[in-house]
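Q: I have two molecules that I believe assemble together. Could you output structure tokens for the complex as a whole instead of separate predictions?
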Amino acid sequence: MTDIKGQVDALPGTDPRAPLLQINDLHVEFHTRDGVAKAVNGASFWLNPGETLAILGESGCGKSVTAQAIMGILETPPAHITQGEVRYRGVDLLKLPEAQRRKVRANRIAMIFQDALSALNPVYSVGFQLAELFRVHRGMSRGDARKRAVELLDQVRIPGAKSRVHDYPHQFSGGMRQRVMIAMALALDPEVLIADEPTTALDVTVQAQIMGLLAELRRERNMGLVLITHDMGVVADVADRISVMYAGRVVEEAPVYDIYARPGHPYTRALLESIPRLDLKGQQLSVIQGLPPALTDIPAGCAFHPRCRYAKDPCRQDPAPPAYSIAPHRTARCHFFREVLGE
Amino acid sequence: MFRYIVRRLLQMILTFFGATFVVFALMFANQDDPIQALAGEKPVSDNVRAVLTERYHLDESFPVQYWYYMKGLLTGDLGRSMAGRDIGEMLSGAWPVTLKLSALAIVVAALIAITAGVWSAIRRGGFFDNSTLLMTLLLLAVPIVVLAPVAQLVFAMELRWFPATTTARAGLYDLLLPAVVLACSVMATQLRVTRTSVVENLRADYVRTARAKGLTPRRVTWVHVLRNSLIPVITLIGVDLGMLMSGAIIVEEVFNIPGVGFNLARGIRAEDGPLVVGFVSVLVVVFLVVNLVVDLLYAALDPRIRYE
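A: Yes, here they are, computed for all two components at once.
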């Protein structure tokens, strides 16, 4: 059994005081036939141990691509990381050779995906897919690895783990399947868990159970959790901080309470207003006018300006608004954040 | 599962009778004067003609002939060829070498097709992918009637790497050249299907998960992607068995391998009805059984497939 964690710690540049995970000015482009799609345009955020950061945004805003860039599982080509850093405990993962990068995956930073049915391999039993991690990364024997797989299924509260370990993904219900995914991600005790829309494919009661389980496991293990979602309702209960993404950029970052109380960016504000609320029953639900920009043709200046009711001339011109510090631990990329906050 | 197999076996019986009936009818329609064909240029005496006509019921109507034939078949008696040899014995003499030849051809074809198919899928658009595309087009364009004698000429006669002809006791190496020729007839499609299937599966979500698990690209491809990609390929291999059988008739003839195809070719030329029908009946059974096995293999490859 090799000490993989030790090897990662021994990497030059590991800084115990650095944040657990820090993304700086990340740019990802997709080279397609229709031109260059700029999926991520300078995303930046950080994460501390035991903390839950929610990344919020509409589909196509670059949240999943950011997650996959952190994991290093983007398909290249067509995807290219053109700029930026992904620092894990101070070490820039983008500069690591692939063999070392591979040891970071699942061991240090793990990920769960939206649709567990397609994300699990249909032709292998869940026991095989869990045990594989221990056999490949820990050099365990088949039998020992199988025992650990049962323990894991137990930990994610799957009833009858001992017999269910032999079952195939299609034999599980949606919620149970997502638990299997979570078990797989937690197998090697990672310090960072990235959950990409973990409950989108589930019905509401099961959603709550899965979110509860994630929050519980995060507490038990003092993990950093990056929760990617488009659902503001999901975020409110579990997240500590929120990064709102639009057109591949983090437009607002704030502690969860502050952002719900007083959004600092027009986009965040519009998102909050589009949540159906009981006290506004009978009134027309407000929607955000227009569509998110095509990633091949992102507007100059602030990417949100064509849909923004606060937009004025400076918004339409490059450079894009900088990350204004609008309060302690809060930033917003809006020239007129005072107006947005003040209303 | 059990019920499924029983149902399939019952279907097989129907198919078997249908197929033998068609073959029997074809041979019957094709027959001109089988007794003269047997004797060749020599004249046949009336006495001999009468005896042979009696033995093979040649003066009876088609249904009666078929009835006699079926009666023999169901009691395990395949009858005698026009030359007077016991067909059951001929078959048991011819099968081993054909079995060896076709098994070798299947293995050669599948090994090359799957390995090269996966490789070109991983490096699609690259040099290897484009050259295999060219090779497969070439293989598809050249029929086995051309390929077999050319391979014999080049590799056996000129280069002398392989023997040009073999006997019934041929070893695996003796059969390698004809097996490769036979494999070429099915390899191209198998390769293309493997490639397409792997390309499709490489885009699947579970591949992303496997990569996120920190597995090596090799393990992702050969453990996770391959098994998912094999299902259409296995189907094709089952169907290809028919191709191999017809190919074997030519290959065995060219390389002088005294197997099933070799005997069948002789029988067709000699208008030897009982021989042809007997041999084809057995081929039909083999084809049906192999395809049943292929269907059962799906369930082993893909747990989502269950037979009720």
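A: One point stands out. Chain A touches chain B through 29 residues (CB under 8 Å).
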